[in-house]
What we know:
Chain A is mostly helical. Chain A contains 31 helices and 18 strands. In chain A, strands 8-10-11 form a three-stranded mixed β-sheet.
Amino acid sequence: MANITKKVSWSSRADDSNATGEGTPLLNGSEQLGYSRQQSGGSISQIGRVSTVNMDEEITSEEDSLKGRPKEITHNEKLLSLKYESLDYDNSENQLFLEEERRMSYLGFRCLEISRWVVCGLIGFLTGLIACFIDIMVEQLTGLKYYVVKENIEKFTAGGGLSISLILWAVLNSAFVMVGAIIVAFFEPIAGGSGIPQIKCYLNGVKIPRVVRLKTLLVKVAGVICSVAGGLVVGKEGPMIHSGAVVAAGVSQGRSTSLKRDFKIFEYFRRDTEKRDFVSAGAAAGVSAAFGAPVGGVLFSLEEAASYWNQMLTWRIFFASMISTFTLNFFLSVYNKNPGELSNPGLINFGSFDRNSSSEYNLYEIPLFIGMGAIGGLLGALFNALNYWLTIFRIRYIHRPCLQVMEAMLVAAVTATVSFIMIYFSNACQPLDVVQGEDYPLQLYCDDGEYNSMATTFFNRPEKSVQNLFHNPPGSYHPLTLGVFTITYFFLACWTYGLAVSAGVFIPSLLIGAAWGRLIGIMLPTLSSTNSTGQIWADPGKYALIGAAAQLGGIVRMTLSLTVILIEATGNVTYGLPLMLVLMTAKIVGDYFEEGLYDIHIKLQSVPFVHSEAPPTSHWLTAREVMSSPVTSFNRVERVGTIVDLLSNTSTNHNGFPVVVSNANGEEPAKLCGLILRSQLIVLLKHKVFVELARSKLTRRKLQLKDFRDAYPRFPPIQSIHVSQDERECMMDLTEFMNPTPYTVPQETSLPRVYKLFRALGLRHLVVVDDSNRVVGLVTRKDLARYHLGKHGLEELQLAQT
Amino acid sequence: MANITKKVSWSSRADDSNATGEGTPLLNGSEQLGYSRQQSGGSISQIGRVSTVNMDEEITSEEDSLKGRPKEITHNEKLLSLKYESLDYDNSENQLFLEEERRMSYLGFRCLEISRWVVCGLIGFLTGLIACFIDIMVEQLTGLKYYVVKENIEKFTAGGGLSISLILWAVLNSAFVMVGAIIVAFFEPIAGGSGIPQIKCYLNGVKIPRVVRLKTLLVKVAGVICSVAGGLVVGKEGPMIHSGAVVAAGVSQGRSTSLKRDFKIFEYFRRDTEKRDFVSAGAAAGVSAAFGAPVGGVLFSLEEAASYWNQMLTWRIFFASMISTFTLNFFLSVYNKNPGELSNPGLINFGSFDRNSSSEYNLYEIPLFIGMGAIGGLLGALFNALNYWLTIFRIRYIHRPCLQVMEAMLVAAVTATVSFIMIYFSNACQPLDVVQGEDYPLQLYCDDGEYNSMATTFFNRPEKSVQNLFHNPPGSYHPLTLGVFTITYFFLACWTYGLAVSAGVFIPSLLIGAAWGRLIGIMLPTLSSTNSTGQIWADPGKYALIGAAAQLGGIVRMTLSLTVILIEATGNVTYGLPLMLVLMTAKIVGDYFEEGLYDIHIKLQSVPFVHSEAPPTSHWLTAREVMSSPVTSFNRVERVGTIVDLLSNTSTNHNGFPVVVSNANGEEPAKLCGLILRSQLIVLLKHKVFVELARSKLTRRKLQLKDFRDAYPRFPPIQSIHVSQDERECMMDLTEFMNPTPYTVPQETSLPRVYKLFRALGLRHLVVVDDSNRVVGLVTRKDLARYHLGKHGLEELQLAQT
């Protein structure tokens, strides 16, 4: 099972993770840890009991239904992987850092601040450009494809032989998708999917290998163009968030490790704290470009990332968002030969909802909206559950790249076939003049001057289809068309999400929701045709909007940011209240059955994700029970050999080490005096900063913060550093390099209190001390992420080396 | 000086603050503290030096210009008052609390969560109702007034004797304002002004006495109606934020101490942590009702309040905001005989900016907008500087309530006179049909079918004037009218802000800015009439909007939240980028000269306000230098007499006490084992929780968390608790009641690190310990708020008992 999971995990190719030293586990938290805690108290053993019972039940039911499956696989989401490292969002304020900060004048800080703004402006600009590039490429390619297929269909409509058209369509789609799937599956698996779960994890503080590299960006952009052009049921909005994040991580470092270019700028930003801030800005810029929602972008970043509210940072994020929307808007207006016309922000916009007076809603419609929210929640939960099982299936059977490519091609061909069949058998003809500006009206078997309305929804960029569902006048769609479309699209979208292509789920969700929403809008007046109020329900576009929101909310379960994104996309604050109520209902109903789609995929990867608050019933857990112990500590002046041995020990792969001073009487445990990171030790070893050498070579250059920054973020693994036998006997003085003031908590601190400190300050290691400041344990991300509220109360996930 | 400051301070009447025990200082931080620190290092003495130089300079210049002034008065804003207490945003997780939490089931937590939502809904609903009430009352009263005055003027226009009209107008205005000023000055001075600085302070963690009481709300609502009806240059939007906050603080506690009613609900919320969360929601609901900007409201609350991002809280705040806008909107639509027409959210809305196609802007206009932002920043700084000197003057000379009432009446009369003179001498006649729906068109000396355009701006609710400036077609206003109006209004608004009336500064700022913005919009085409592009500048409404944003930004210097508020008020995201750029420019330019208006008033009150980040150049300060020491500690089991004596000591009026256990060998300082608050000790003393009594009366009821909640928030002063001589010899066991896990930092922690911990967790007391966990100092709000970045680098404010 370990192997299988590794194959399809985000961190992807198994050969990679160990060789680069990136996939090394953080703690000596073997599975025994989880069990050893059961002894420490009556109430705690309850956890063990519950999860054990749970395990038994599921295994039993598994054995009944599916013999021969590996048993562990169903518990994939009940595990917490140890292979993910954390990011250091807490500055290591060692002497070098403090010296640098103290040397810096006020002017220096001003310059830093200005360069932060410049970087954010650049991030916004580049993200906007990328969005623009994707949009234009997709439009060109799909335009070409639709033109060819339409011509072909029209050629064969009269004479028969439409099956040739079908084959042409399917082959075209599969070809596009094949390219997209090959680059994702073979070159950069992390670029698959929407990238939102990965960015959520990154901002949460989990190091997902290769998630913000240049190569990922290139594959992502090319992949999303291919998959959208290939007619898959996907959107290009989600990937923009990932793209923005990669741009941010790249620009802010002032160098590209992949291209081996160092521009010697922004060196101050080469640490996790600063980089995270910029990645937040990049993600926001991505949202902003995707939906034309700069405020929504800021709120998305805050919702996912912010632990500590920083006014200047928020303002900078907003700046990046604004620039991004503006850039996209401006270049698209130039491309559309209408420069300066800036009314189309975002890759998708919902069109203006205030032109027609029927856009208002009445008080008595609110219960209807809430009901639609509930439907959205139910359908969303169904979608997520189906996708969950599909993902489990994929993890088990479709983990080889060539199989992944073949599955993607199959989906593309099936999508084309289904579309074709639906167009063929639908006789929903509409007069041509109803809809202006239909790009590819397909006549098929309709009379002259009419077109096939089913074909409209398929022969269109999905963004345009959403707009049509919102804004086309009543009567544009036949109810049956909408019903069949909803069902087909629902299953196609569900099948598509999780393929090894780069693609998002926003647009499909909106489209499904808009379709059934409009269907409800059409059906309602007929239901209540007896009373005279049926007439005001005549605008099904409003119900399409509500349905779209409900479906999207039911699938992704974002809250505040999604409401604001939708408000901004409709450009009308009047819909704020209904949208909020709908999203809330969808979330509440959906959460009752199944988690959000992104959370499911995060859990399936066993990522140690720290939520914003501790589970409510966790007050009876204290740091003593939560922490990992015993802790491996170093002395302030430590023998090199000891350090090398400890770092090389693959079974206890720690990343942070408390530094202690022993008492005069040498009692254990010793007093805490600092904290040092693996990455710092590696730089020290590499530069051979040994006490003996410092004495012998007086002219030796003192190690500076720059040396640490140059090594960031790809610190070499310990195996690549050669330490001779003589050097092993040298001593290393850690005083100058350790963080002398790590945050600590006493052993009696309750879990919510530990959680709050950890999350609010973005910590990686929290030292637990006794009443004499002696180290007794260490709390890391995994120790907190382990506890979650299941259906039977507080549950504890197990740690695994997968 | 101390007396003077006290008289006009927010916490107001001098007789009050000591009697109720609310104004007691927090720490033994006498002014010597500030000086004693100068010895600890070379670099630190720099602070003392710089601020001394500064002081000398100012005194010298003072002596030149104004002899006989009390010298200290100019340093009012260089002091930090000790009279303000802090709020406890960090839960005291003592045994009682933990027991309660552990007893609570998961269902209990769900119920709590649901009641939080209910409370937020109530807050939104009531805030919306209050906004609605204010709006309708103001409309009725001003309508009546304008009708009377207009009739009168028309009666006298032909026959002469307009001076009678003037007197009538002035008397009417003064009468309204007199009522408004009397209730503020005599009954509840804290209700004066907009209340935004007070709410900012409250959310920051400073306890401003009586700021969230029912009486304050009543006076605020009545006061704002009077001052707006009295024709003062004020808005009713700012006070809504304060009103919302009071509603929230009241509703969430489930009782009214003023009315002596306890509904026995929401008892769980009776502590500062929960109350602050609800007050954030209330403030957001206020913003939302005022501007129809629910998202802006959320961001306002976050910008001012949030230290720690809590997803559920933000979502609740958003809910309250939405309900508030919706309620206001709905009831106003009913009042306007158009129920269900929900397109007018907020007390002010800017009207729709997307009807006319000219609402778009071009790339080359952006530099123009930035220039206008700079003008706004300059004018804003001028406004703030003038208001600053005026406030200093008021603090010194106009501190008696009757004088305050007279000043307010004078301003009202002058406002009426100036308006009248301007209408009288203006001959800006406009044909009547240009503007539809003018409520009170005044013909005066214009021809039939025309009206006086100057009168329009004055004879109108200011909100309507702003809308007119934005939307009236080109040619509605004469440039001279706008110029004169700008200047007059600027000085009137400046004079008005800070009067003892309840009123806001948003609308006047918007009006001033809209006037000069529109003026620029009108002038620009004439300047560039040679080229053909002049024609596209024909829409001066766009420039009015930009000008309004620039002026408002230049005065209040809010950033993200203001941008979003303005975007929401215009209902058009297209203007996002220009608005953001304008507000940024206005802030940068303005900050160069003078602080924001609210910050000025906060500083003038010497409030210890903790900003979101430490000053950038403060890395060389450590906890050792910042902390207050020595610290008064208690033993775990302490003699009652010792406790009573310490609490009664008015010179060292501590509020938090570390609890320590002495070593076996009794060495000092002793080891930290907890932290207990003055309020907790007082409840313990009141209930006589003594070890001896517990032994004697076995049946005695155990003290519960409920007893602490019942006493919250008005804990009795120590003087009111009688302790007999026998009881003084009893012992008190603090183990159960102290917080056993207070946050601590080592002495070497740098100031930014201390700051971050303090601010992120909303602490009140941060214990500084040595390497053996022995208490060496205590960091409180004043120790951090003291450091700020002045023009000469890092400066240290002095603490004073004012």
